[in-house]
Structures are given as C-alpha cells and as structure tokens.
Amino acid sequence: MKQITIDKESIAITKAQVEIEEKNANEKADAAKLIADDAQKDLAEAIPALEEAVKCLNDLKKSDIDEVKSLKTPPSGVVLTIKVCCLMFDIKPIKKNDPNQPGKKIDDYWEAGQKGLLTDAKIFLNNLMTFDKDNIPDRIIKSISVFMDDPTFTPAAIERSSKACTAICMWSRAMYKYHFVALGVAPKRARLKEAEDELAIVMEQLSKAKSSLKLVNDRLESLEKAYNEAIEKKDMLVKKEASCKIQLSNADKLIGGLGGEEIRWRETVEKLSESSNNLLGDIIISAATISYLGSFTGEFRNDLINNW
C-alpha cells in the first residue's frame, strides 16, 4: 500500500509534466501552422499563374516545339520568347556580325536557342516542367526583368506568332513572378523550419513523458491488482477463520456432551462383555427351555425357571 501511494504521487507529478509538454507542443504546432498558412497565402498569389503556365506546357506536343525550331524566318515574338528562355536557362548567345554596323557584333539568341534548347523537344519540355523555380539566380532575374514590362512580351502578343511560344512566355512570366513571391516567403519558410524543429524537439519530449507516465501507470495497475488480490485473499481467510472457530466451538460442545455418556458406555461395555461370555450357556438354556418346558403352562414354566 505504501508503494502504491508513492507511485500515485509519481503519476501525479509525471501527469502534470505531460500536460505542460502537451500544452507547449500544441502552442508550437499552432504557431507553425500560422506561419505555414501565412506563407501559403503569399504563395497563392503566384500559384494560379504558375498552374496556368504548367497547364499550357502540358498541352504542348513535340510537334509544336519542332515546328518552332524549323522556322527559317521566325516572327519577332518567337525570337523574343526564345531569347528570354535562353536567359532563363543561362544559354549564351552566339556572336554574329551586325549587318547594320560593320565591325560590330550582335547577340544571336535565336540560333543559340535552336542549338541549346530546341534540339530535343522532349528534353526541352521536361526541363521547363522541372525547372528549379525556388533557386533562380538574381542575375537571371535581373536579365529578364526588362522583358516583363515589354508589351510585346505578353501571352496575348506572342499568341499571334506561335502557340508553343505563348506557353513558354506564360511560363517565363510565371517563374519571374514566383521568384519575388518566394523571396518574400523565404523568411517565413525559415521561421517555419525553426518552428518545426522546435516542435519536433517538444514532441520528442512529450513522447518520452507519455512513455514514462505509461510505465508508472502500468506499474501502479500491477500493484493495485496484486493489492486487491491480497485483500480478497485476506477476506477469504478471515471468513475461513470464523468458520473454523464455529466448527471448533461445536466440536467442544459435542465433546463436552459426549463426556457425560462415558460412564454409561463403560457399564454397557461391561454388561455386553459379560453377556458375551454367557452367550453359549444362555443359548443352551433357551433351547432346553423351549424343548422341555414347552408343553407346560406358563405359570408352571416360570416357577421352574425361577428355581434354576
């Protein structure tokens, strides 16, 4: 019983600790959720454009890319789109002589794009779909920023030149927008990571506290079970003791009652012993009486027997 009391006190302490840890964990989880919701709210600003661009890319076929690649004299919208795409993938332009200014060189992104991007349509489309949008270098963002305000580089404007380039234009603009949203979200992601790490530590501590509480509870349950069994056994023994006392009392009474019969029993035994010794003679006398005195009257027989 003393150990049960000690364990109950230990359970109370451990339970209080678990409640504190659980409250702390819930607070950490709520804080992490608030940060995550806030970050997701910011990302939601860029997600629709990103999803629309991905949808357009999914609609593209290999033939659409091959068609762009095969253009001998591409429209200005196609050239502009491929230039932006080359900048996104960090494809260097091919230096060519400027036909308008002899002795000077110009950057040719169209030929560079044909060779560096459009060679394999499947690979190109896969590169667009798997582009690392969370880690776009600032120099690339800076290089394409001028085109984001260019009225000739909009999906509506590019659509007049090429279906495939329209999807690429939408993708480029979506990547650009996502980059700045992600920059704003980055500190929140850092805080979220920190909050999640703290939550993981608290959850581990909570798990240990709960395990400790379970061990003490299991031990207490085992002790209480043993204690209850001992109490039940004790009650059974008490009842058995009372029953034995009653039986002993009855036995004493019986023995006391039988003690008074001892003298009578002794006399009876002596008489029976004597009768046993005289049994043969009594039998002979009884047989003779029946045989020889049977024909006489009763009164005469009694007189004869009394005279024996």
Keywords summarizing the entry:
mainly alpha; 2 strands; 80% helix; rod-shaped
Structural notes for this entry:
With 308 residues, the protein is mainly α. Helix content is 80%, strand content 3%. The protein contains 12 helices and 2 strands; from the N terminus they run ααααββαααααααα. The protein has helices at residues 2-43, 47-59, 62-69, 76-88, 109-116, 121-129, 138-148, 155-159, 163-259, 262-277, 279-292, 298-307; strands at residues 94-97, 105-108. Strands 1-2 form a two-stranded antiparallel ribbon. A hairpin with a 7-residue loop joins strand 1 and strand 2 (105-108). Helix 1 runs antiparallel to helix 9 (163-259). The longest helix has 97 residues, at 163-259. The model has no long low-confidence stretch (mean pLDDT 81).
| Tally of helical runs | 12
What is the residue-mean pLDDT, rounded to a whole number?
A: 81
What structural class results from the helix and strand content?
mainly alpha
- Distance, first to last CA: 89 Å
Strand content: under 5%
